[in-house]
């Protein structure tokens, strides 16, 4: 982890005395390594494709009068895009699990909640009050704040595992008996007892992921504006920049 500070900031001639008075030292910490950032954006794109195509699979569009039925393959392309994005997300997720073992401390946060630490629960409560506008001063976190950790663990780690497993169980039904997909995921479909129910819970999972994405984007932009550290740019550069000299 590298630290860099800007003790003396020089502004251009258009700076007023009021501008100069707002100068604070900025501390930068390298937190998200390149594989984590790459996974984040590829995964985000894959999820967007999965949500759009998954919605269309669950609510098929009407017949398109652009050609004879035998000459168009619109729904087939939708399904192909869904399957391809799902496989990319799956491979990326396994890669992300691997990097949790070989990467830095912050690469593990998505997979492990330190629920045994009393200080962590205190910080969770502080974050709840901060997001509810009941706390005036946000804390500084190098990685995810505790509330974000909880959201990432349940919606991404657990949620993506659920979507991958149920998705492949549905895919195995189309591939047919005797395939490796059916050998691995077929028992889940048989245990549920009805592929229609499996479709419904997989489709329901899509809505939970969509809700998480909206909250995630809102929280990231809100923190970038209101908190004392960078958020959105951190997932591009990998560097978290703190915006004042206060310790806590």
Explain what this protein looks like in three dimensions.
The protein has helices at residues 17-21, 34-58, 74-102, 118-131, 146-175, 180-192, 195-226, 234-237, and strands at residues 3-5, 27-30, 239-242. It is mainly alpha-helical. Strands 1-2-3 form a three-stranded antiparallel beta sheet. It has one domain: Fumarate Reductase Cytochrome B subunit (Up-down Bundle). The chain starts with a strand and ends in a 6-residue tail after the last strand. The model is unreliable at 1-8 (pLDDT under 50).
Brief characterization of the structure:
This protein is mostly helical. It is 61% helix and 4% strand.
Structural class: mainly alpha
Q: Radius of gyration from the CA trace?
A: 23 Å
Secondary structure: helix percent: 55-70%
Fourth CATH level, the homologous superfamily: Transmembrane di-heme cytochromes, Chain C
Largest sheet: 3 strands, antiparallel
Widest sheet, order of strands: 1-2-3
SSE succession: EHEHHHHHHHE
Shape: elongated
Q: Just give the CATH class.
A: Mainly Alpha
Termini gap: 19 Å
Task: Assign the CATH topology.
Answer: Fumarate Reductase Cytochrome B subunit
Domains (count): 1
Ranges where pLDDT stays below 50 over 5 or more residues in a row are 1-8
Give the mean pLDDT. 85
Write the layout of secondary structure elements.
Blueprint: E1 3-5, H1 17-21, E2 27-30, H2 34-58, H3 74-102, H4 118-131, H5 146-175, H6 180-192, H7 195-226, H8 234-237, E3 239-242
Antiparallel strand pairs: 1-2, 2-3
Helix pairs in contact: 2-3, 2-7, 3-5, 5-6, 5-7
């Amino acid at each position: 982890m590298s630290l860099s500070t800007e003790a003396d900031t020089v502004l251009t001639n258009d700076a007023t005395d009021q501008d100069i008075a707002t100068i604070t030292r900025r501390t930068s910490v390298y937190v998200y390594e390149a594989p984590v950032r790459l996974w984040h954006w590829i995964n985000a794109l894959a999820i967007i494709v999965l949500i759009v195509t998954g919605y269309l699979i669950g609510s098929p569009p009407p017949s398109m009068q652009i050609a004879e039925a035998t000459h168009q393959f619109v729904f087939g392309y939708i399904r192909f895009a869904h399957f391809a994005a799902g496989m990319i997300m799956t491979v990326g997720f396994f890669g992300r699990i691997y990097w949790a073992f070989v990467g830095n401390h912050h690469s593990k946060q998505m997979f492990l909640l330190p629920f045994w630490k009393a200080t962590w629960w205190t910080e969770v409560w502080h974050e709840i009050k901060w997001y509810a506008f009941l706390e005036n001063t946000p804390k500084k976190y190098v990685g995810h704040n505790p509330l974000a950790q909880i959201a990432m663990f349940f919606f991404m780690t657990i949620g993506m595992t659920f979507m991958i497993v149920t998705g492949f169980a549905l895919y195995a039904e189309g591939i047919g008996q005797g395939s490796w997909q059916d050998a691995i995921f077929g028992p889940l479909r048989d245990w549920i007892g009805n592929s229609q129910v499996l479709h419904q819970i997989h489709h329901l999972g899509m809505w939970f992921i969509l809700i998480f994405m909206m909250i995630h984007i809102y929280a990231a932009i809100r923190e970038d504006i209101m908190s004392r550290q960078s958020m959105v740019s951190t997932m591009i550069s990998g560097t978290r920049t703190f915006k004042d000299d206060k310790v806590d």
